[in-house]
Amino acid sequence: MTLTASSIGRKVAMALSGIFLVLFLTQHFSINMLSVFSESMFNQVSHFMGNNPIVQFVLQPILIFGVLFHFIMGIVLELKNSKSRTVKYANYKGNANASWMSRNMIYSGIVILSFLVLHFYDFWVPEMNYKYVEVLPLNPDRYFEELVHKFENPVRVGIYALSFVFLCLHLLHGFASSFQSVGINNKYSKVIKSFTTAFAVVVPLGFVFIALFHHLTAF
Amino acid sequence: MAKLDSNIPKGPVADKWTNHKGKINLVSPANKRLIDVIVVGTGLAGASASATLAELGYNVKTFCFQDSPRRAHSIAAQGGINAAKNYQGDGDSTYRLFYDTIKGGDYRSREANVHRLAEVSTNIIDQCVAQGVPFARDYGGLLDNRSFGGVLVSRTFYAKGQTGQQLLLGAYSAMNRQIGRGKIKMYNRHEMMDIVLVDGKARGIITRNLVDGKIERHGAHAVVIASGGYGNVFFLSTNAMGSNVSASWKIHKKGAYFANPCFTQIHPTCIPVSGEHQSKLTLMSESLRNDGRIWVPKKLEDAKAIREGKLKPTALAEEDRDYYLERRYPAFGNLVPRDVASRAAKERCDAGFGVNKTGEAVYLDFASSITRYGKEQAHVKGLDENNAALVKKLGQDVVRSKYGNLFQMYEKIVDQNPYEMPMMIYPAVHYTMGGVWVDYNLMTTIPGCYAIGEANFSDHGANRLGASALMQGLADGYFVLPYTIGDYLADDIRTGSIDTQLPEFEKAEAAVKAQIEGFLSNKGKNSVDYYHRKLGKIMWDKCGMSRNEKDLKEAIKEIQELREDFYKNVNVPGKADEFNEQLAKAGRVADFLELGELFAKDALERTESCGGHFREESQTPEGEALRDDENFTFVSAWEYKGAPAKAKLHKEELNYQEIEVKTRSYK
Amino acid sequence: MNLTLKVWRQANPQAKGKMETYNIKEVSPDMSFLEMMDVLNEQLMAQEIDPIAFDHDCREGICGMCSMFINGEAHGPDRLVTTCQLHMRKFKDGDTITIEPFRAKAFPVIKDLTVDRSSFDRVQQAGGFVSVNTSGNTQDANAIPIDKHDADKAFDAATCIGCGACVATCKNASAMLFVSAKVSQYALLPQGKVEATDRVLNMVKQMDEEGFGNCTNTGACEVECPKGISLENIARMNREYLSASLKG
Hints:
Chain B is α+β, with helices and mostly antiparallel strands and 667 residues long. Helix content of chain B is 39%, strand content 14%. Among the domains of chain B are: 159 residues, no CATH class; 125 residues, Methane Monooxygenase Hydroxylase, Chain G, domain 1 (Up-down Bundle).
């Protein structure tokens, strides 16, 4: 099956890439959470992730592909969908029958995308520069300091917090929706809904907490 | 001049159909490809006939005025479809279905046709299940049945209260398969404006494309009319807004006899009229009478108090209620046939016992069923059978699972909860047993022109039993017409395609255009609906549930005057070459205005009471209908002679070989 | 009740339409929405204004022909009803009501509030059937018992009236609920399973070709569906489609 050839194929592709990104998010979240409990453990794991060839040269490209795919497909779908109704309604009461989150995935997505640009600028670009451009000496203990350093600026913390609110909104619809897209809607759907809702709230809040924690404890 | 030959095959009734099928002419598969058939209408009969004819190999052109064939009004049939399957083992058989239908029709239907209907009924169920129609099933996975009025067995197959919808979608899917294969060419939003005869044979139709107003010619070797009944002559009926008599009426005017126009079914359980603005009436399925009990207050003062809103029906004690059907007809009780139930309701309301503001409503009460089912459920679940609240809840759940959609529909319209308050119902025009006269092959008196489903007259006599309309529509379309039509078409294999440039087409088209031009240039002062409402009122008041000579004579005169006024003063806005609903309606109402008169004339002529036709002059001392078998055991087939008043009566004598004609009793 | 109506007027498919405002007086709360429209049309004709074209037929919520987008919602503010079953008691004296046609690229406007939904027919023609001849020579109806739960679910899916409210209401004008209802009905019944693979592939292909949008699981269709067709059907179609794609 060519994933992009049919509407359902595209929908499944969106769902699968979404679920993949959720998995990545979980992993990222777990590692970041370590920074709250133990500086050394955080450094250790970060060093492993940053230097393990499988992570770096297999998983990282897949991740980048996944991110790009999810965004590009999302935008393509949005464009296609906007063409399926050429004359718009004068009065359209979207909130009468669907949640704000489900109707505005493109906007929450764009906020997250902008955030990712900032995030790359903050962490990923310096990291790549450190390792592959300037090829600075290995330093397994630098990660925690770099992290804390970034959260000194209250404006940045504010932007991070706001972005995670949008991530929360995006996940509130997207995570549960991906199960529907791959065809799972049965007696377990209630459990799935509760779990995904909890995840959508807890994980972004956790990220905000980490940022705030380091901001407040840095002084 | 066409002669009235019903072409009933010889031999014992039970063998007629088998013998006939074995003897009629067939068209070879290779030749079927050379033959075009037009089908007008896509209800159960039209859709099933189109699909089957296309499967057999004919080139089919099908027309409907709606935006899709799936919208035809068969879709609204609720209760079910009869078939002599005897799955319940309650003594049902082909013969019993045959007998019940003849008796239900008050001995005014054609025996041979009815027997054929009963024979093929079982095939319909097999066919529909194979098509994926989701009939109701029991926990063992087998098909479930329920009981309908006028019979003592459970032979009705159903899909909740949406049986017609499911069957129609089944036929529609069969059609879709053929449309996809290119064997049916479907014309949506097309109205048949006239039939074209060449050398006395049906050779095509003139249509109007309702979207752009284009007048089109379509040629074919045979024309099948499956356009339903004419209940909308009453303006208020349970028919769809667009249901009309025009196709049948056009062929009538070109030579097809119109049979028993006065045989109309007034359905006992409809939602009462609420006001002047009313545009149509909504049926509540007859299946409700399985569990609902019909009553009015026993005392006039209670009825008055209820009408004034001072008394709630639930507050009325059991002994102050008159369950009049159970009282008058103990054997069948609430499940008497429709005509009987309707007249009984009218009788009570006329006597002043009506229960709504207008005094034209009776109660249909589920309270005792809710209690009965609730207790049953409590027992099954091992719960307390004496806990009234629990029993009520459990009972309501059972009723909801059986009739949920009907109850919801009622609540939406009336704004009252039928689980708590008894429903209010009143009879309304529902179905027309009369229709285009056809012979055993379903051919009209125009060679090559057929009429199937509600559009013809043959199977239901003077009264149709519940759940038999769906059966007849599908029987005609799937299993009868596709074979009998071959008998005629066998002579047409060398005809070649029909030339629509023939002068006959030209002339028919010119007449259609002239009528349209006439309407549009009239610039009168009254809308089309104004006339339709007026006609409806005359029909309901004077040709409704009970009829008498004086009223009928008045009706004829009033309709004539109304028709004259219509042509003088009707206002049809807009243009001919556009989407113009008023114009389409004007054509339909013009035909109703003629049919209405023939209807009254037929009712006047038939001085007996039978089935849905009740003449006040002909009743027993207890007020039951009194048939006159000696003088009226015939089908009235009317020949058009330039005006409804000039119509000529032909009689098809009804001979009962198999069944002894008796007084119908449901007591 | 007195009401202000803002109605979409468009003379023909090519014309550029616009909203027009009309006032209507003495509307009874017991009227259905379409009866109110009848009264309005009588009033317009008396003023020599072209009456408003709208689709309607059975007026009891089953034919699926009526199709108005009322105050921003398909079939108006009430739930589980079609426009013909919507009653004026749902509105208040002095209300302004906007009335638009069902809008989608696949439902082009014919005139005013009337749209062309033949795209739905074409999707059905692509595979919405069981390929069995109507000869009547099939096996006995009770030859294959069907699990009551499956039969009930198939029935629930089959109650779709094809009105197009799902498309009209979906922000993407997706027809997934409509198509999935048909796919589900047959997928749940043994009679339909035989050609389930081809059916779902062909119907989805046709659906895409008609120009309907993509489903983003907002669930609006289920809420606005007059027959309450469940989103479960869409999930089932996704499953069917995935397995059919892997097979085929």
